[in-house]
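Quick one: structure for this chain?
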Amino acid sequence: MKKRLFLLSALVMFCFFIISSAFAADNFRFYSVKPSKGGPGSTVTLNGDGFGDRKGESKVFFGTTEARVLSWKSNEISVIVPDNAKTEDLVEVKSKKESQTFMPVYIELEGSGKSQPRNFDLMPHILHLSPDRGGAGDTVTITGFNFGDYVDLGKVFIGTTPVKIQSWSDSKIVCLLPASVKPEEVVSEQKKNKTNRGIDIFVQTGGIKGEGEKFAWDPTIISVEPKQAGPGSKIQLKGRNFGKIQESIRVKFASREPAPAVLADDTIITAIPTDITADELTNSNLMVTVISGGVPSNEKPVPIAPEIKTVHPSSTRGGAVIIKGAGFGSSAKDGRVVLTSKDSSKSDEFDAGVLSWTDDEIKIEFPTGKNTTTSELVYSITIWAGKLKSNSKELKIPGQKK
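Got it. Here's what it folds into:
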């Protein structure tokens, strides 16, 4: 009998506890979080009814992370957004137009249990990058919101590469791009019949990493000066997004290993290798690529002009003449050796007969009897390789002996 009374008494007390808790929870209302967004360290206010006039053992949570309470009133609680909230606590809320990610905020009231959550936008959001394109060493300003006010809690990444922070506030970050990024993280996008290459920049505050904003890390060669050049000649590559770090710049000719070059603003100064061979040319062009911070640019063709270095003999009345140089091409099929008299009173220009032709040496036959005077004549030798014209060298024709 005593056992039955004990069980009945326990059952009555349990029911009383459940009813009391339900009654208390029914008088406890959590309406909103204001402002509805913010970064770690910001102060927000939770509005509602029935919170009680003192905090006691009550708590506020952002996901599963407890927030520090600044003040507690029956209808208003002031807290600091924690800097160690967990990414895994974020929830995705979908609507017909878009999908957004929020951090659920709970109030755990002493004796009343946990409230329904209210959504709080804790994600760092990038609204604009200025500039939105560039390269190694460039300064970029990131504007947005929810970055937080503490630089020691924040990080910026380009792809997965950390970025150096110069200044930080809740709505603006100034950072310096690294010397290199991972080329595989630079992706191409097709927009309005144009292909753009870029890599995402991310802001992380505390443990929360925001969505990426595309940055065009896209080195581009626009022009090459001069428009044609010979082996060993200096050329200027003009373009954009080369960056500002000298050590990050390499220039690649054809399939050769990239080599260092001189960076001057939006211009790169380099020299065509002196040992370029015909096998490395594409339709008489040498293809050049700029590599900035590990990311290759577009290819640009550089017409390689044939270069005459020596003529032997430099004086003759007729016979074989050997021309040495580079970039002549592998055969005489599309080539010409043109001799032009430098005597203003005598107009004489003709194609020399070719005895042999290689990429670096041409042997021609200079006809005898060209000079019937007692004065010395001078001819200019020029080589045409396809549509490319070489420099000129002189060939002297001694006069007849008296």
